Amino acid sequence: MSGIRQVCSDETREDIFVASGGTDRSIAGLDQRLSDCLDYCGGKYLDAFILEYVCPYELDDEIMYPGPELAASLKHTQEWVNQGTVRYVGISTHSHMVGKALARSPEVDILMLRYGMSHKDAAERLSFPAARENGKAVIAFTSTRWNRLQEGIQNNSQWNKDFAPTSADCLSFVFGSKASPPVEAVLHSARDEDELLCSLSEFKMLSLDEENKWRDYGKIFEELNEDNFDEYPEERSI
């Protein structure tokens, strides 16, 4: 992380996308967070600021639109866009109902959503169609289900570790036919440099057969949800 300041201050700044965010919804807290981020990177602006972990209770139940506190936060962060200190405002959420609702908001430019071979149904039915309809870019995250997908399924001859997906497969799946668009970027937390380089070099556009294979694999995790990865399992059937 120590290299961020150097990257943000030299000639390559326009070639990278620098984003940060926070969970505070207060105006003072947001201003402090932005100030800290700019001080940390030594730059004049962020490419994106994300209001993190937006929950269903932050929406108005009747109209499924931002409630008062969230609306004020979005309005304030959009003022940064007008001032030139932030280029895009986004939200992150684990709820695809929230993603669907906020895709309609003109003050939200980016949606950060969970998506992968083991967490796809709600995204493909709820948030992704809304994002496409409203022209909102999606940043997908946790594509490896906390690196659980690469481990295979115990006591399952079809899906043991030898047949489990690689990190590159997990990354490739997120840009599959049912996800991109609206997915334009993926947060890919490789466990080490070798895995990162391997993921980038082996990334590819999957064939339909490959995509369906990994959909079947991920479905096992999606239905069991033994690790409570899916915080809103009811959204899968909406």
Automatic annotation (TrEMBL):
It comes from the Eukaryota. InterPro entries: NAD(P)_OxRdtase_dom_sf (IPR036812), NADP_OxRdtase_dom (IPR023210). It holds the Pfam family Aldo_ket_red. SUPFAM superfamilies: NAD(P)-linked oxidoreductase. This is NADP-dependent oxidoreductase domain-containing protein. Residues 11-160 form the NADP-dependent oxidoreductase domain.
